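fold-stage: in
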Amino acid sequence: MLKCKFFLQGQKLYFTFVRNFCLWAVPTCFLYFMSFFRSALLGGWLLLASVMQAQAGSGATPVEQSALYGTEEVTFPNAIDKLQLAGTLTVPQGAGPFPAVVLISDMGAQNRDGSVRGYQPLRLLAEHLSEQGIAVLRFDDRGVGKSEGDNSATTTLDRVKDVQAAMLYLRTRPEIAAARVGVIGHGEGGNVGLLAAAQPLPPAFVVTLAASGQVGRDLLANQQAAQRMVASADTSQTLGKRRMLAQQALEQQVASMRASGANAAQVETAVAKYQLNQKTEAQNALTKALAREQAMLEIVRQNPDNAQVQAILANMMRQDNAELDPSQARTLAARRTTTWYRSYLSFDPQQYLSNVKCPVLLMQGLDDEEVAPTNLALLEKGLKANRTVTVQKFEGVNHVFQAPETHWPLVDNVRQPIFSYIALSAIREWVRQR
């Protein structure tokens, strides 16, 4: 009887333990499983809702709620320039303090999500990092969404002050580890982050996504020349898709030759000749486009009269493209005489890189047509005194860090763009180590 009593008590304690363990473990494991499951599919179907939602309207899109992080709409002051900036703060659930990052958008008037044709890279990056234990603040550029200011009059140096204000705000939050506040910048935003790191009260670390190592006028000339090269094509097509279409056209030509009786040697010779001609034609066209863009940039640099410059540029643009409407030409010309544009022509990243002492992660997609991968070498050279620089390159990834097009999910037989999960994982793991 005594043994039976002890056995029953033991069974009761065992089942009580199992019940309590399950009450704790099942929800906890479920949350971690969901985090892993969402992360594994972040580049896929679970993000299609946000993509489709972005297509419905502009401005700051409400952030999808998650059991793994909290979302807060915030405002913070830039006390130096006396304006308010607005953004979204996502903070992981649980006990802090957490490491944190400020996201910095690329050039141009960008909202907090970095929205481009329904694709929201900054939002996707913020959600992923916050699900993985990192707080994220992303904000509307000046004059965009709920932020005050005039975007066209905002220079790169002004943007540095906005980022400093954002970091200062994060350091006041009790759930944020003040010593672990860093920045992640896309395009020009990467240069803004590096410049902030060269100032007093720098970020704890900097991650750049396709930052430039060139003087501003050289970068802009190359970007605008590249745009000329694809002007007659569908500009929504990525470099990867254009390569795929070109390869399909070549394969059809080869199949046609073989059907006509051509042997292997004849086909190989024809393919080599075709590829050489294509390369030569592309290089000649790029050289011509680059010379034209450099001439237009010099007109802007040498002439302070905006009205006169706009008239000259609009005329040149219509000479290059007879189908361009006069009002469209004037609008495009006006963009090249803004305060930002004029100041960016002389912006030189090399002037401050030697003062960057914090850890830096330089990231670049090798299919980037806006900032050539050769910029990585220029940035590395400027940062040679910094012993904590990491460089990562990604095959098939473009300027907005989309995954290769073959990885995009299909929706109604149309592929939808996604952020490269390999790049997301690399950012996450590097930031966790800071």
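fold-stage: in (second)
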Amino acid sequence: MKKSIKPGTLAFPTPVWCVGSYDGDGKPNVMTIAWGGICCSAPVSLTVSLRKATYTYQSILDRGAYTVSIPSVKYVAEADYFGLASGKNTDKFVVTGLTPVRSDLVDAPYVEEFPVIFECKLIQTVELGLHTQFIGEIVGIKADENILDEKGMPLMDKAQSFVFAPSNKDYRAIGDVVGQGFKSGKKFIS
């Protein structure tokens, strides 16, 4: 039997993504978000949702761009810190010792030490209530060579990314392969 639960942000898992932007003075900043995902395949687009109160919010609007750096489990503490501290009051790159790199495709920085990077040009904003959804066209993807397969595609297990469980606030490593997309369900097709 199912039990009703009060509506909330309990969908899981959610990504642990670090959104990079430059502030008005050109200082690199990064914040961790969990509300985001791929939202369109043509143009290939990625969305992140931010509150107006965040320091990153206005930076994305002003620069028309952002990056998403996907951390590996090695950097769980740094990624968590990026969501706890405000770039308005501190330089998160200096505090963590991580390296901001200027994207050559968009006006935003990314985190050098993180294995996968998405470079996004802002194409639309949608006011949702407490959050604004930023929709960015992915104009570039960068990945560490050591996580690529023989076809040049990033492998999730080698990237060692992790996810967030909003219901209990756990970070979880991504586990075993349990099936194949567009293949496992074919047993139900006659």
